[in-house]
Write a structure and sequence with these properties.
- The complex is a heterodimer of chains A (171) and B (664).
- Chain A is of the alpha/beta class.
- Chain A has one domain: Glutaredoxin (3-Layer(aba) Sandwich), CATH 3.40.30.
- Helices cover 37% and strands 18% of the residues of chain A.
- In chain A, a hairpin with a 6-residue loop joins strand 1 and strand 2.
- With 664 residues, chain B is α+β, with helices and mostly antiparallel strands.
- Chain B has 3 domains: 167 residues; 220 residues, no CATH class; 102 residues.
- In chain B, helix 3 runs antiparallel to helix 6, helix 10 packs antiparallel against helix 11 and helix 14 packs parallel to helix 16.
- Chains A and B meet through helix 1, helix 2 and helix 3 of A and helix 11, helix 12, helix 13 and strand 7 of B.
């Protein structure tokens, strides 16, 4: 056996270490350009998580549309910030993505509900049309129902500092 | 605050500093002794390890005492306790958050060092000196980390709060008293195996004796890991309130990865001890196992990944742990690359032999661990590519993990019964044909009996479990040559293995049944309503309030009937904890060997009605029962008398007698 092979684990570890180093340093995440920006929000007929009644439109005012799920730890980390935003008067609509209504309601009760209402998307159909990679993702939608921006990953103070001017310009 | 008892936290910190100094000496002096060949310097290793453990225990006890007497001048106590908290939880609050759990971690490291010092009488002194010196290095790193970034004794002076913020209600539970210490014992126990591997590399003696010394320590750590993981799963099941028992959360993955690698290591050590093979591979596994437990620590505490039970994260800590990880893992892998033997081992073996099956088992376990590592780090990789933070769902992990487990279960029985060096597939086939037929028939029968439809997952899951149990028992029967009274003579080590392998089958049965045949219904129920689920009828008897020591709760009383017979009175609760205002669901569970009946409360609705979730989960207990079997098996193997033999024991693979051959 060649001794060079014995260095493979070390090299693998070094690659991982670099990944971690970058992971530690990297705080702000860039929004991805989405082909949906400038397009109308997809049509849907789905039930709300809260009442189970059918709904097919967003409010006719600028809103954040936040895709989340109880199976998603990042969403939990994000939740406190959403609560803060809601307190400041930002309107947020939730899409409960590939999830279970019962768990979702338990979650909202336990951690607070920052959403105007939540659209239940148990099969991920709406998520598919929105081009959702995973949870959480957040869309800025204006009063005419046009998608203005998309953010992949958790919403936090840094991200919001970037998105807020755009959101306020939509008012 | 001038009296001595008021200064206790300072004494705790002082003890921690002393432990650091002792560990630093323990790291240097014995190794210098080995270098110079001076026995009196090497002999310092044992007393230094004992002293280090003593100082760490003092420090931990003082922190626990601060919790018990509600010393809110200590910032960590104020953040994680409350006067109304029951005393048992005050003690478990010691490891309820980052700082204290880290202190527990290093204390356990000290205790493992102490155990090595005590139980290493049969080891050559230079080996003991090297092992304890390496453990001292790990201690220095982690005690320094505790003191530098996460001191649990930091004070809130001069203005101390009158009341503490209370322990996270999720953690106010029996499961959380026992789960973290057990799991940490497992993580930290792997440091002993790691130290043995590095010591053997340094000393250039990767031989059967080294493998024999390492085996009981590996099993001990593995038993703790197994129990710790099972306890965590059990806790999540009843405490998170919706009946899930495994979430593929980064923290759970962080415990499963070292378990998989430690399992591979156990089997690889067997080959190294018996046949003198796979030496470099075994060393690498020992390094991997401990590295993965360090990696788990890093992932949980650095905030690199977000998780349900992530500790408050802090970039400074992240950098520190990353540096520790780099020195520890990078250093050991470098040592491995330079010193691991490249000459092929002497023994030869055929394609069909126990060696091959164990190697296959190793590869499968490692692939499983790697798949989980990839899934856990996937969010980081995505982040690295500038695509934001994401979580991978459970579907991905199940997709990767289930097929590997099926293959693994197939190999387990063969590996256990195949002969060393060379065996014959025909022989293995003819001896297990009964088990194969039984497995296929029973595998087919279970789904048909359960609900009359063919379910491939159940067929597969039950089939491999029956195969594993059947083939294992056939092997026992054959080795006992058909006489029950010969079974005890087969040796603790062999019987422990049998028990652990049956444990694996039991867990697979549990997982298969509960994943495929759980039924549930969410319903709106008010007083007097009944709801039927499967064979069971649930009656909402009564709703009321309960005043707990530090919470108030809404509770509902249910009667559960099987036909006309009442089988249980269940009382789920919805608790509101006073200090933090957080709301917790306490599920009520009726437990039996064949099924769990699980009732949890959702949200209150109008007119005193509640959203209620009712679940029946068949064979739920088996998931954890299997883990108990595995642990007992490990315990039995550890007690095998050959690990207690003194210096005159044969320590060469070639001398291993045929009688011992059975007991790998």
């Amino acid at each position: 056996m060649n001794r060079a092979f014995l260095f493979i684990p070390l090299l693998g570890f070094i690659a991982m270490g670099i990944l971690f180093w970058i992971g530690l340093g990297q705080e702000d995440k860039t929004s991805l350009p989405s082909p949906l920006i400038g397009k109308p929000f997809p049509t849907f007929i789905l039930n709300t998580v809260e009442s189970g009644e059918s709904t097919n439109h967003l409010p006719q005012e600028p809103v954040l549309v936040n895709v989340w799920a109880t199976w998603c730890p990042t969403c939990k980390a994000e939740h406190a910030f959403l609560n803060e935003l809601a307190k400041e008067g930002v309107k947020i609509v939730g899409i409960n993505y590939k999830d279970d209504d019962f768990k979702a309601r338990q979650w909202l009760q336990a951690y607070g509900n920052p959403y105007l209402f939540n659209i239940a998307d148990p099969d991920g159909k709406l998520g598919l049309e929105l081009g959702v990679y995973g949870a959480p993702e957040t869309f800025l939608v204006d009063s005419k129902g046009i998608i203005r921006a998309k953010h992949i990953g958790d919403l936090n103070a840094q991200v919001w500092a970037r998105l807020q001017p755009q959101f306020e310009a939509m008012q | 605050m001038t009296n001595l008892s008021g200064m206790l936290p300072e004494f705790g910190q002082l003890a921690l500093i002393f432990a650091l100094l002792v560990a630093a000496v323990q790291m240097v002096v014995p190794l210098v002794g080995v270098r110079r060949g001076q026995a009196w310097l090497m002999a310092y290793a044992r007393p230094l390890a004992s002293a280090q453990a003593l100082f760490l225990i003092i420090s931990l006890v003082i922190l626990a005492y601060c919790f018990v007497v509600d010393d809110f001048s200590v910032a960590y106590v104020a953040k994680n306790s409350n006067t109304a908290l029951p005393t048992a939880y005050k003690i478990s609050a010691v490891w309820g958050a980052h700082e204290g759990s880290l202190l527990l971690w290093v204390t356990m490291l000290g205790c493992w060092g102490l155990a090595v010092a005590w139980f290493s009488q049969s080891l050559p002194l230079d080996m003991v000196a090297r092992v304890l010196s390496i453990m001292g290095m790990v201690s220095v790193g982690f005690i320094l980390f505790t003191l530098e970034t996460s001191n649990p004794f930091d004070r809130n002076l001069p203005s101390m709060p009158q009341e503490g913020a209370d322990l996270n209600p999720l953690l106010q539970d029996f499961g959380l008293i026992v789960h973290p210490p057990t799991l940490y014992m497992g993580y930290v126990g792997l440091s002993v195996v790691f130290a043995f591997a590095l010591a053997a590399l340094l000393g250039g003696r990767l031989d059967a004796a080294w493998a024999r010394w390492s085996r009981p320590w590996t099993i001990a750590a593995w038993v703790f890991l197994t129990l710790g993981i099972a306890l965590g799963s059990w806790w999540a099941y009843y405490e998170l309130g919706w009946g899930g028992w495994w979430f593929w959360d980064p923290v759970e993955n962080a415990s499963l990865m070292p378990w998989l690698v430690a399992t591979a290591l156990l089997h690889s050590l067997a080959v190294t001890e018996k046949r003198g093979l796979f030496k470099s591979w075994t060393v690498l596994l020992a390094i991997f196992a401990f590295s993965l437990s360090l990696l788990g620590t890093f992932l949980v505490r650095s905030g690199v990944l977000t998780s349900v039970h992530a500790f408050a994260s802090d970039p400074e800590r992240g950098v520190f742990i990353l540096a520790l990880l780099g020195i520890c893992v990078g250093g050991s892998l470098l040592l491995y690359a330079i010193k691991a033997p490249t000459v092929a081992s002497v023994g030869r073996y055929e394609w069909v032999s126990r060696e091959s099956f164990l190697l296959l088992n190793n590869l499968l376990l490692l692939v499983a661990a790697f798949a989980i590592l990839l899934g856990t780090l996937y969010p980081l990789i995505i982040d690295f590519m500038g695509m934001g933070k994401l979580s991978v769902g459970a579907a991905w992990f199940n997709f990767m993990f289930v097929p590997i487990s099926v293959l693994l279960a197939l190999v387990i029985a063969l590996g256990a019964m195949a002969r060393w060096k060379a065996d014959d597939l025909k022989r293995l086939g003819s001896e297990t044909v009964a088990a194969m037929v039984a497995a296929v028939l029973l595998g087919l029968a279970v789904p048909l009996l359960a609900d009359g439809t063919m379910n491939w997952q159940v067929l597969l899951g039950m089939g491999i479990s029956f195969w594993l149990i059947g083939a294992t028992l056939l092997d026992v029967w054959k080795k006992a040559r058909g006489r029950l009274n010969r079974i005890p003579q087969l040796g603790m080590s062999y019987l422990g293995m049998v028990l652990a392998h049956i444990g694996v089958a039991i867990t697979i049965i549990g997982v298969t049944m509960v994943s495929n045949y759980s039924i549930e219904v969410s319903a709106r129920m008010a007083k007097g309503d009944t709801e039927t689920l499967g064979d069971y009828r649930f009656e909402f008897v009564d709703a009321g309030h309960i005043e707990g020591p530090n919470f108030v709760s809404d509770a509902i009383r249910f009667r559960v009937y099987d036909g006309e017979r009442q089988i249980a009175l269940l009382q789920p609760e919805k608790r509101r904890y006073n200090a933090s205002g957080s709301i917790m669901t306490e599920a009520a569970i009726d437990v039996s060997l064949l099924r769990d009946v699980y009732v949890s409360m959702g949200e209150p609705l109008a007119d005193g009605a509640w959203g209620i979730r009712l679940q029946v989960k068949p064979f739920m207990r088996w998931v954890w029962l299997g883990a108990i079997f595995m642990s007992l098996g490990g315990l039995m193997a550890m007690l095998d008398k050959r690990y207690r033999q003194r210096k005159n024991a044969p320590n060469n693979a070639v001398q291993a007698s045929t009688a011992q051959e059975v007991t790998a």
